[in-house]
C-alpha cells in the first residue's frame, strides 16, 4: 500500500510537470500573474535564501560563505517559431532585471547561453575557455603549458603505467601516441575523454595499433561533418581573424554562432585576451569547401556570358 501511494504521488508529480511544460495557457497565466507580483516574489526569494544561509552558518560556522550556481540556463534555446522571442526574453531579463537576480547573503552564478555575450557586450559575462594547445598566430605554434595540462588529465585518467600498456611507449615518455589524440581534441576535455574511451573499446590487443587510433579520430571527426558551404565560409573567416566575425545580432545569426559554440566547431580560447578558432578536426574540410567555392566563382567569372558548347556535326 505504501509503495502504491509513493508511485501514485510520483505519477501525479510527473503528470503535473508534463502539463506545466506542455500547456501554453498555464505558462501565459503564470506570466501574467507574476508580472504584477515581482516585488512579492523577490521578497519571498530573499527570505528563503536568508533562512538557508543562516542554517548553513549555524552548522558550519559564521566564516563559511555560500555560492549558489543556477545551472542549465545556458541550454535556453528557441524553436524556429519562437527563436527571436526567446533571445529577446533572455536578453531582457539580464539587461533590465539584473538587480533582481542579485541574491542577498550569497554569491550567485548564472550559467547563461554563450550568445548572450554578443548581444550584451560590456556585461560581466565570462565564457569558460578550452585549454589552449596552440598560440594565436598564423601557423598556430605549439603551446607547451597547455599540452602539459592535458597530458596531466590523461595521467589522472589511466595512470602512467596505463599509458605505457595502452600506447606501447616507455615510462620516460608515456605520451608518444597519446599526443596524437591530444593534437585533435582541440583542448576540449569531452573530446579527449571520448577518444580515450573509444580506443579502449576498439582495442582487441595491447599496445594499440595505429589503425585503432586513426579509426577513433575518424569517428570523432564524423560528428563534425558534413559542414554546409555557408557555414564553411564563416568558419574560414573565424579561423583567419580569430574573432566570431559576427555580421549582425539577428536571431538567426546568433543561433548559427550558438550552434558553432555548442558543437565545439568553434572554440573559445584565451591568453589574457579572449579569441576564437575552429576545431582541428574541421580545418581540413573547411579549407576544402572554401577552395571549391572559390574555384566555382573563378570558373563562373572566366566563362563567356551567353556561351554555349559548340555543336559538332553528325558523322555521315
Explain what the structure shows.
The protein is mainly α and 316 residues long. It has 14 helices and 4 strands. The protein is flat.
Radius of gyration: 27 Å
Proportion of beta-strand residues: 5-15%
Q: From N to C, what is the helix and strand string?
A: HHHEHHEHHHHHHHHEEH
Count of helical regions: 14
Order of strands, main sheet, comes to: 1-2
Layout of SSEs?
Layout lengths: L1 H21 L1 H12 L2 H23 L6 E4 L12 H14 L1 H4 L5 E4 L5 H4 L24 H15 L1 H8 L10 H8 L3 H14 L7 H13 L6 H13 L9 H12 L3 E5 L3 E5 L1 H23 L14
Helix pairs in contact: 7-8, 9-10, 10-11, 12-14
Main features:
disordered N terminus, 316 residues, two-stranded parallel ribbon, two-stranded antiparallel ribbon, single chain, 14 helices, mainly alpha, 4 strands
Could you write a compact summary of the structure shown?
By secondary structure, this protein is mainly α. Helix content is 58%, strand content 6%. The longest helix is centred in the first third of the chain and has 23 residues, at 38-60.
